[in-house]
């Protein structure tokens, strides 16, 4: 059997944060060089297998502490306070209508999926169909339904179920329509027999 060559590859850590969660200060990250271990010889009776290469997984940085999360939350609130004050001044009590709620989040995903399916478009514009994105948006709503089971109010649960039902049906209709061959129009049809 032929001997396998040793392959070298370089892994460069380009993350902005260190494994400890601190911001990297180095201008150029240091490359990490590793060598692939030679594969052990397979028994002669075994069929040759496809060569597999794997890259080591980078370590997962630890989650922020409760104090870090609170500091980040406070900084976020502070940075948005000016915008909130301006909206409240311009819209008065109607500023609360712009706050994100679960219902608005589901409605946003619903409208996004309709746009991706080409069922909604700008006035005077052409519908754009993006089935992959539509599927991902619908699947996102499905994940949301699974992960929030038992934590939603009845109206939130109904909104999510109805949105998923309608979008899944629309997806099936659009994919079926795209799979059908184009139907000839009256002028393209051949002579009719009488």
Can you walk me through this structure?
With 194 residues, this protein is mostly helical. It has a domain at 87-179: Methane Monooxygenase Hydroxylase, Chain G, domain 1 (Up-down Bundle). The chain has helices at 66-91, 102-116, 131-147, 154-179; strands at residues 8-12, 31-35. The chain has a two-stranded antiparallel ribbon. The longest helix is centred in the middle third of the chain and has 26 residues, at 66-91. The model is unreliable at 34-48 (pLDDT under 50).
Explain briefly what this protein structure is.
By secondary structure, this protein is mainly α. The protein has helices spanning 66-91, 102-116, 131-147, 154-179; strands at residues 8-12, 31-35. The protein has 4 helices and 2 strands.
Question: Could you give the order of the helices and strands?
Answer: EEHHHH
DSSP helical segment count = 4
Counted beta strands = 2
Strand order of the largest sheet: 1-2
CATH top level label of the domain at 87-179: Mainly Alpha
Poorly predicted regions are 34-48
Percent of residues in β-strands: 5-15%
Envelope shape: extended
What gyration radius follows from the Cα positions, in whole Å?
28 Å
Distance between the termini: 76 Å
The average pLDDT is: 79
> What's the architecture of the domain at 87-179, going by CATH?
Up-down Bundle
Q: What structural class results from the helix and strand content?
A: mainly alpha
Query: Per CATH, what is the topology of the domain at 87-179?
Result: Methane Monooxygenase Hydroxylase, Chain G, domain 1
Please describe the biggest sheet, giving its number of strands, its sense, and whether it closes into a barrel.
Answer: 2 strands, antiparallel
Report helical residue fraction.
40-55%
